[in-house]
From TrEMBL:
GO molecular function, one term: protein kinase binding
Pfam families, per database record: PMP22_Claudin
TM region positions: 63-84, 96-117, 137-162
Taxonomic source organism: Fukomys damarensis (Damaraland mole rat)
GO biological processes: cell adhesion; positive regulation of integrin-mediated signaling pathway; regulation of cell-matrix adhesion
Family per record: Belongs to the PMP-22/EMP/MP20 family.
Protein keywords: Cell membrane, Cytoplasm, Golgi apparatus, Membrane, Nucleus, Signal, Transmembrane, Transmembrane helix
Self-association and partners: Interacts with PTK2; regulates PTK2 activation and localization. Interacts with ITGB3; regulates the levels of the heterodimer ITGA5-ITGB3 integrin surface expression. Interacts with P2RX7 (via C-terminus). Interacts with ITGB1; the interaction may be direct or indirect and ITGB1 has a heterodimer form.
Protein name: Epithelial membrane protein 2
């Protein structure tokens, strides 16, 4: 039982770390001489511009920012609630509250990554015209966001199945 508990805690911490990295790091969309994320666009790794109201379709990036931040916060809250339930739940009860919050985190990261996947091309085409290149590829932070989606989904399923034992 102790090994299973350690595995679940390690899995949840890994999910949280993936969400933090995906939300904070600046490599959602990369090209030869630029990289961009949901917070800023950097050209030649020195000239960085914050994404603000001056950008077209700024509301798209605000939605992605909000959902990624919310997913990270919910994942951390789920971990705290899991630890509290670990000591407060009666034997045989399930970690339903933790599973529900972790599932909400999963949905938030899915929404943020899906919006970015769908609207990225329009956003970068209209706002990165000064780079004179539209070629680029998804960066590792974008990929980590989708991996974090899978991890939080599996984690919520584990909490749904898990019962408190002695």
């Amino acid at each position: 039982m102790l090994v299973l508990l350690f595995f679940i805690i390690a899995f949840h911490i890994t999910s949280s770390a993936l969400l933090f990295i995906a939300t904070i790091d600046n490599t959602w969309w990369v090209g030869e001489d630029f990289f961009a994320d949901v917070w800023r666009v950097c050209v030649n790794t020195t000239n960085c511009t914050e994404i603000n109201e001056n950008f077209e379709d700024y509301s798209i990036m605000q939605a992605v920012q909000a959902s990624m931040i919310l997913s990270t916060i919910l994942c951390c809250i789920a971990f705290v609630i899991f630890l509290l339930q670990l000591f407060r739940l009666k034997q045989g009860e399930r970690f339903i509250l933790t599973a529900t919050i972790q599932l909400m985190s999963c949905l938030c990261v899915m929404i943020g990554a899906a919006i970015y996947t769908d609207r990225r091309e329009d956003f970068h085409r209209t706002n990165l015209v000064y780079l004179q290149t539209s070629e680029g590829r998804y960066g590792y932070s974008f990929i980590l966001a989708w991996v974090a989606f899978a991890f939080t989904l599996v984690s919520s399923l584990m909490y749904t199945v898990l019962r408190k034992r002695k």
